[in-house]
Sequence to fold (261 residues):
Amino acid sequence: MKALKRFVPLNKRKHDRKSFDCGSVHLNVFLREKADNHYKKGVSLTMVLPEQSRTKPKRICAFYTLSHTTIERNSLPTKIAKTLPSYPIPVLLLAQLAVHSDIQKKGMGKVSLILALRHCVKINKTLNSVAIVVDAIDAKASSFYQKYGFDPLISNRLFLPMCVAEALLLRKT
Amino acid sequence: MASRINIRIDEKLKADAEKVVALEGMKSLTEYIVKLIRQDSERLLELHSKIVLEDNVFDRFMKACEDAEKPNAALLEAAKFTDQSRFR
Fold:
């Protein structure tokens, strides 16, 4: 299984959702049964990395899902965050990120994360967000995100300040 | 503007729902179902549309966003790997 070099929006006629297996039933079922419907209902956008092949529909090597949400304080704020706008605080949610089992352990997880972060920075130009929040499906996923600088937020959620993702995009290699 | 939905429902459940309609003095099964959907969808949409944090967690989150540092070494390496592998 060899991946193309660019993520594209999920299209159920062009992409074979059924054959995707990342080892997590939850993520497999999300891609197969919910992702397209969530997009149609305006809930989230799923981007997929198609396989490099002539077959149609193409198998999916990896996918990530983005949505927009807000973070609110449980009660009225004190004197903090003077520089920020009034509540609630907008954030981008990287709700799902998964790589097909056939190409795991080849760096595709970090590639998918980087491309998802770049997508977030692009969205942020028109839809300002303070941070990128991720949903980690288990402890292993949580360690993965923490390795790349995400800090724990609440239960299975972690975050990366948007300015860190922006700095990543602006850097020179 | 109203639109129509078709629902398949277990016979016993439908009979129970019709009893509730009569007991509660509602006009129709439609009124009952619309009321249930309205209540539940408001709750679920609210649940999925925001993250509510305890005050101290929220304050820590805001401070971390204000004091944010540069990408760490692992993230920089990942970006380099992505570019070298020609992903866009």
Summary: The helical segments of chain B are 11-23, 29-49, 55-66, 73-84.
